[in-house]
Design brief:
Layout lengths: L1 E6 L2 H4 L32 E5 L6 E5 L2 E5 L7 E5 H7 L15 E2 L4 E8 L2 E8 L4 E8 L4 E5 L6 E5 L2 E6 L2 E4 L7 E3 L14 E3 L5 E8 L5 E6 L6 E6 L9 E8 L5 E3 L8 E8 L5 E8 L4 E8 L5 E9 L11 E2 L6 E7 L4 E7 L4 E4 L7 E7 L5 E6 L8 E6 L5 E3 L6 E6 L5 E8 L2 E9 L4 E7 L12 E7 L5 E7 L10 E6 L18 H9 L3 E6 L8 H5 L7 H14 L5 E11 L1 H12 L4 E7 L10 H8 L6 H7 L11 E7 L8 H12 L5 E5 L10 H16 L1
Parallel strand pairs: 39-40, 39-41, 41-42, 42-43, 43-44
Antiparallel strand pairs: 1-37, 2-3, 3-4, 4-5, 6-7, 7-8, 8-9, 10-11, 11-12, 12-13, 14-16, 15-16, 16-19, 17-18, 19-20, 21-22, 22-23, 23-24, 25-26, 26-27, 27-28, 29-30, 30-31, 31-32, 33-34, 34-35, 35-36, 37-38, 38-40
Length: 717
């Protein structure tokens, strides 16, 4: 195993940490491991951002806004809460007790929400006029608020209907029957969908998703809070079953009329990547077939809803997964940037609509993870990628015409940038295995200007063991990254039990060059309790390219297990590993993996814990399930192969299965059927539920979960 980084007790790495013996330092508690102790997380600056398109930065400190310039060491008080309250006189806004969350419209105007006499108000602050005016208000209970920046009208939803707040008016856009939902995310938030409301750039038109779920079977979630338990049905289309039908509507704010975009048949298709053309007359939709292997990026008239043309098509034998909208160049209605995986990795492409031309902008065996925007004149783009290492995220600037690329971030770790409006500077927010959280100002060439924020090590007073990152090789030669955490009082002459913490599924990467190497407090707590804690990011996990991620298609869990066993074989070579005391722990896809490892390798895994596990993919939802497994009708052998409910006769040893009773993601049915089959096969297991919790256990109850899991390993491993 090639070691690439060793973290010798994170606390000891920090130069400012006070010397102390292990006995003098603190130990984590289950509450600490449950996200309930904020002091354990690196402090981040409050509202550190650029003001409009200027080179002035602001930050909220206590009850005031301070400003600073990139080249200056001085801060100036810009506004206080008392001064803001002076601006609001006569507007019916309750006195502010803190600086509200500001969004800058330009160099001197910003908007914010506040609590007013008539509910929640949207307000515009004008620094030049020293005034705040209430623009509109939205009722309590409004959800999915989406502010149009050009008009400050607000679209929002209540229950299944869509509304617009415009000045003193509350305009109801839809009057839907039960089972038809407007203005909300669709397709269960897959395909980079994170909302259902899309304002045109000028704010005169409002596009929104309308989702008809009436043809989808109701799935009951049981609520035990009443004396006679009740059911709360949700719409949950399972793989191979009838899906909901989605359309895109466009509403004219001035006339009150709307059109439905003519996306055609079949009705069971996915509408993704909604993008407005800057001319406000055209709108684009990524129309993806239900099989998810054929995408058409279509242009439609926003006035009539008519189809105009297909800009491009993407096909893939396994699946096509759109990664967001198109990004039009500033002041350019003919060219846009698109992110796609066509040469084995996600890269950026420049499209020219009028010429039907495409140019690939980025190249290489790495993944573009984020598009960060344009320079003011549109000649340059900013993006984030894995080019340096799959564990790191660095930010780059590219000149579109010449193709020249400048790496803007230099320090190892995970970076995110926010350029100033004029592009002369950018804020670099980053963390790494030895940096809790820093914010630097850099110039346009990536040269360090000054540090704005350096978080103190929040774990300096705690006992932390050594964390080691390394690499192994999968059977096909691809690199697998690993992380091993040792107990703080580790003794190399002793042998220790191992907990393999696993997720293993798509859209996740557990091992990163971030603070605690991505492990967080929970895994360090397990190590503190006397376990070696091992994690391996197997094939199928995120941001490693098509060959690495798509190899699990139609056989979820199989290659992932083989990769995990590569890690097990390496662990067995370590003199301090007790090979007879290896366990596994995971949740959701990780619960599926933990159970898979337990059933398929009982000779290795003495004890396993599985939370919210997918145990038969035929019970999982359409969008995610069919992407990775196809339908049960198309792939019956694959579904049979990966099902764990039909393999309970192979269960040996100790297994703790945990499920939340109102889980809307992995239905309780998964583990209940598994338990039933264990009974039929005469197999014992330990089973625990968390009533009223959803797909995981959060809040104060999470400490109970952490204690339950830890004690189970202590008692049985």
């Amino acid at each position: 195993m090639k070691k690439i980084l060793t973290l010798l007790s994170l606390a000891a790495l920090m130069a400012f940490a006070m010397p102390a013996t292990a006995q003098e330092k603190k130990l984590f508690t289950p509450e600490d491991a449950s996200y309930n102790n904020r002091s354990l997380y690196a402090q981040r600056p409050n509202q550190l951002k650029w003001i409009g398109n200027s080179e002035i930065m602001m930050q909220v400190k206590d009850k005031e806004i301070v400003t600073m310039m990139p080249g200056s060491k001085k801060e100036a008080t810009f506004l206080t809460v008392d001064e803001l309250n002076g601006f609001t006189k006569g507007e019916g806004i309750n006195d502010l007790t803190r600086i509200p969350q500001l969004t800058w419209i330009n160099d001197y105007q910003a908007y914010f929400y506040a609590l007013g006499d008539n509910g929640i108000t949207l307000n515009k602050m004008d620094i030049k006029k020293k005034s705040i005016e209430t623009v509109t208000s939205i009722p309590q209970g409004a959800e999915n608020q989406n502010i149009c920046k050009s008009t400050l009208n607000v679209a929002y939803t209540i229950d299944n209907n869509l509304y617009v707040a415009k000045g003193d008016q509350q305009i109801q856009i839809t009057d839907n029957p039960e089972g038809v939902v407007a203005g909300q995310s669709v397709h269960r938030n897959e395909f980079a969908i994170n909302g259902g409301i899309f304002w045109s750039p000028d704010g005169k038109l409002l596009a929104y998703y309308s989702m008809d779920e009436r043809m989808v079977t109701d799935y009951p979630l049981v609520d035990i809070n009443e004396r006679i338990a009740t059911t709360k049905p949700i719409k949950y289309p399972m793989a191979g079953m009838t899906s909901h039908q989605v359309t895109l509507h466009i509403y004219n704010i001035a006339t009150g009329k709307e059109v439905v975009v003519k996306t055609g048949e079949p009705a069971e298709q996915y509408l993704t990547a909604i993008t407005w053309n800057p001319d406000n007359k055209r709108i684009y939709i990524g129309v993806l077939n239900r099989e998810q292997n054929y995408l058409k990026f279509n242009e439609y008239s926003a006035i009539t809803g008519d189809f105009i043309q297909t800009i491009f098509e993407d096909r893939d034998e396994q699946y096509v997964e759109p990664q967001g909208p198109a990004y039009f160049l500033p002041n350019n209605s003919d060219q846009f940037i698109w992110k796609a995986q066509r040469d084995g990795y996600y890269h950026l492409y420049l499209y020219t609509i009028s010429k039907k031309a495409v140019k690939q902008l980025t190249h290489g065996d790495f993944v573009i993870t984020d598009f960060n925007g344009f320079s003011k004149d549109g000649s340059k783009i900013y993006y984030r990628s894995t080019e340096v290492s799959p564990l790191e995220r660095h930010c780059y600037m590219m000149d579109i015409k010449s193709g020249k690329v400048t790496q803007l971030t230099k320090e190892h770790g995970t970076h995110d940038i926010v350029p100033s409006g004029n592009g002369k500077y950018f804020l670099d927010f980053y963390t790494s295995t030895d940096v809790p959280y820093n914010v630097d100002i850099m110039d346009a060439n990536g040269k360090f200007v000054k540090r704005l924020h350096e978080a103190e090590n929040p774990l300096k007073d705690y006992n932390l063991g050594e964390t080691t990152l390394g690499t192994l090789k999968a059977e096909d030669g691809q690199t697998l990254y690993t992380r091993l955490i040792k107990p703080y009082n580790f003794d190399a002459s002793k042998k220790y039990p191992v907990i393999v913490y696993v997720y293993g599924g798509p859209h996740a990467q557990l091992i990163t060059d971030e603070w605690t190497a991505g492990a967080g407090i929970y895994l360090n707590y397990l190590a503190q309790e006397g376990f070696l804690v091992f994690t391996l990011d197997n094939r199928g996990s995120a941001d490693r390219g098509e060959a690495f991620e798509q190899c699990i298609h139609r056989q979820c869990g199989q290659l992932e297990m083989r990769d995990q066993m590569v890690g097990i074989n390496w662990l067995k070579t370590l003199p301090y590993v007790d090979a007879d005391r290896i366990g596994s722990d995971g949740w959701s896809y990780g619960g599926f993996m933990s159970t898979s490892l337990k059933i398929n390798h009982p000779e290795v895994f003495k004890v396993s814990v599985a939370g919210g596990p997918v145990l038969d993919w035929k019970y999982y939802e359409i969008m995610y399930g069919e992407r990775y497994m196809d339908t049960p009708q198309e792939n019956p052998e694959g579904y049979e192969l990966v099902s764990l409910e039909n393999k309970t006769d192979k269960l040996e040893g100790k297994l703790l299965m945990i499920h939340c009773t109102t889980d809307p993601v992995v239905m309780w049915q998964h583990s209940l059927v598994f338990v039933e089959n264990c009974i039929h096969n005469g197999k014992q297991l330990d089973y625990f539920v968390y009533p009223g919790h959803d797909h995981n256990v959060y809040g104060m109850d999470r400490a109970h979960l952490i204690t339950k899991i830890t004690q189970y390993f202590k008692d049985n491993l």
